[in-house]
Automatic annotation (TrEMBL):
PANTHER family: 3-DEOXY-D-MANNO-OCTULOSONIC-ACID TRANSFERASE/TRNA GUANINE-N 7 - -METHYLTRANSFERASE, TRNA (GUANINE-N(7)-)-METHYLTRANSFERASE. Its EC number is 2.1.1.33. InterPro entries: SAM-dependent_MTases_sf, tRNA_(Gua-N-7)_MeTrfase_Trmb, tRNA_methyltr_TrmB_bact. It is an enzyme of class 2 (transferase). The keyword Methyltransferase applies. This is tRNA (guanine(46)-N(7))-methyltransferase. PROSITE patterns: SAM_MT_TRMB. It catalyses: guanosine(46) in tRNA + S-adenosyl-L-methionine = N(7)-methylguanosine(46) in tRNA + S-adenosyl-L-homocysteine. CDD domains: AdoMet_MTases. It comes from Stylosanthes scabra. The keyword tRNA processing applies. Keywords: Methyltransferase, S-adenosyl-L-methionine, Transferase, tRNA processing.
């Protein structure tokens, strides 16, 4: 137990050191976590997913954990469980340890093989329904929440590069008895195009939510949203279809925004719908999905701002 805590603390400190030492390229690109006085957590989301034993676990500084335990202050993993409590998910799955601490390198050869296109009739009850694809879906609970609320209206496909999370999500989907959602182990950067091109119905919504930032310049090529993926999203979206992107890391949000802003076929939603307004910097004022993602919950708990953009393809 003590050893485990030490490792968690150690990881946390290493993360903080790494992120603090990042060069900040421009003073206007202030990174939200640098503004918070005590070093907030920026750890891979999957670090706080599920343990075999039962609950959602997260890396936390030991002292903070002790303090919170004694004052019964809810921790952000508790808030995640609360936000998804409607799903009634079983956390007692005997899957071994599902704690994954490292970012994967999507450029490594093990992730270079395109995912096989599934038989859509096998994975969805009605494969002609409009499709939402969540790129880098993490544990998948965000998408499960949506799928449960929208049966027979839309299908949901989660693409995730961590096989264990996909395996775990599939068990949850089976538990929930949902027939409009599927998770695929895939490097979305290279597999998205062929997957959606083979889907029989229209592509209605694509989300890229809090993608791994890969801060170092030489690692930017590891970011999931590369030019060919942007092209494949835009080409395959149905007219009126939407792209939703968000991040708690301004640098990352700006990167995604730059890539979609320059697509003529896409218009930002505030120019089309007066109810969807933005702040003075052009970021959406609220989350249009009706549910927050796990990373979003953790980040907001830490006081970070979430930078969101919602684009719509011209009819
Ligand atoms: C920071 S997490 C965010 C997860 C979730 N979208 C959220 O907001 O809570 C980023 C996720 O993207 C996944 N990911 C990173 N690169 C990917 C890629 N090339 N293809 C698919 N998933 C990827 C990671 O494994 C991780 O689960």
């Amino acid at each position: 137990m003590a050893c485990c805590r030490f490792l968690r603390l150690q990881f946390y400190h290493n993360s903080c050191r790494a992120f603090r030492s990042r060069p900040s390229s421009s003073s206007s690109v202030a990174l939200p976590f640098l503004a918070v006085p005590s070093c907030p957590r920026y750890y891979p989301l999957s670090f706080c997913h599920v343990s075999s034993s039962s609950q959602v676990v997260a890396a936390e500084p030991y002292e903070q954990e002790q303090q919170q335990e004694s004052h019964h202050v809810p921790r952000s993993p508790d808030l995640v469980a609360l936000e998804y409590s409607d799903l009634n998910l079983s956390y007692n799955l005997d899957l071994g340890h599902v704690r994954i601490r490292q970012h994967v390198n999507p450029l490594s050869s093990s992730f270079s093989v395109p995912a096989q296109v599934p038989d859509w009739n096998q994975v969805f009850a009605d494969p002609t329904l409009p499709l939402m694809v969540d790129i880098g879906c993490g544990s998948g609970r965000f998408l499960m929440w949506l799928a449960k609320r929208n049966p027979k209206v839309r299908n949901y496909l989660g693409l995730e590069i961590r096989r264990k999370l996909v395996k775990h999500a599939a068990i949850w989907v089976k538990d929930l008895g949902l027939d409009n959602i599927h998770f695929l182990f895939a490097n979305a950067t290279i597999s998205f195009k062929q997957l959606v091109e083979a889907y029989p119905g229209p592509l209605q919504l694509v989300s890229v939510l809090c993608p791994d930032p890969h801060f170092k310049k030489r690692h930017h090529k590891r970011r999931v949203l590369q030019k060919p993926l942007v092209g494949a999203i835009v080409d395959n979206l149905m007219p009126g279809g939407q792209v939703f992107v968000q991040s708690d890391v301004l640098e990352m949000a700006l990167d995604m925004r730059d890539q979609f802003d320059e697509v003529d076929l896409l218009k930002h939603i505030d120019t089309l719908n007066a109810d969807m307004s933005c702040d003075s910097e052009g970021w959406l004022l609220s989350n249009p999905m009706g549910i927050r993602t796990e990373r979003e919950i953790h980040a907001e708990y830490e006081g970070a701002k979430i930078y969101r953009r919602l684009y719509q393809k011209q009819e």
